[in-house]
Amino acid sequence: MLASLKKIDIKSIDGMPEATTYKFLQHVLESSVAYRVCRMELWNVSPTYTGWQGDLPIAAGMQNTARPEDQQDAIARWSQVAQYLDDEIANLQEGLKQGYTAPKGNVQSVINQMNAMLAAPIADSPFVQMAKAGSPASFKAKLVEQEQKLIRPAITRYRDFLVKTYLPAAREAIGVSANPKD
């Protein structure tokens, strides 16, 4: 996309609203290329909005579940959380092999977040709260079952991996410069 964008002569749109779009897109694409060298997929244990435990609950809270087909979509979509977390563990294991880790402080914060998620009542889970007032009881029951049988066990696996394997190997240095430079 960046190569295609660079084929456009910016002078031909100078002063037009499209020039702003061009410059914004150029910035986003160049930043994306630069960001890739960080290999975040190999060490993304983040206690902020960039961690899955921030993103997924927000997305669940925005999930439309008003219609029966929306409810079916929600059940199907969120049934994949366990596989997603297993993939995250595999990515982190690969990161460990290649020397990429998150800072210990971040890892400990995420462990604390996992403990809080697991200690919360099931009814408070964002993956259960998708069943709004007036939703069919069967929909809520499926979400509760999914939380109990898939999501919480996956969160537990992820947390346990962080505690037993990842935290001991996590880096002391805060800066990303402590990771390998490809």
Radius of gyration over C-alpha positions, nearest whole angstrom:
21 Å
Run of helices and strands:
HHHHHHH
Number of domains: 2
Structural class: mainly alpha
The averaged pLDDT comes out at: 92
Please describe the biggest sheet, giving its number of strands, its sense, and whether it closes into a barrel: none
Strand content: under 5%
Shape: flat
Total number of β-strand segments?
0
Calculate the terminal CA-CA distance, rounded to whole Å: 23 Å
Instruction: List the uncertain runs.
Output: none
Binned, the helix content reads 55-70%
Number of helices: 7
Give a brief rundown of this model.
Helix content is 63%, strand content 0%. It has 182 residues and is mostly helical. The protein has two domains: 1-36; 40-178, no CATH class.
Topology:
Layout: H1 2-6, H2 17-36, H3 52-62, H4 68-78, H5 81-98, H6 104-119, H7 137-169
What does this protein structure show overall?
The chain has 182 residues and is mostly helical. It folds into two domains: 1-36; 40-178, no CATH class. 63% of the residues lie in helices and 0% in strands. The protein has seven helices and no strands. Helix 4 runs parallel beside helix 7 (137-169) and helix 5 packs parallel to helix 7. The longest helix has 33 residues, at 137-169. The chain is flat and about 60 Å long. The relative contact order is 0.14. The model has no long low-confidence stretch (mean pLDDT 92).
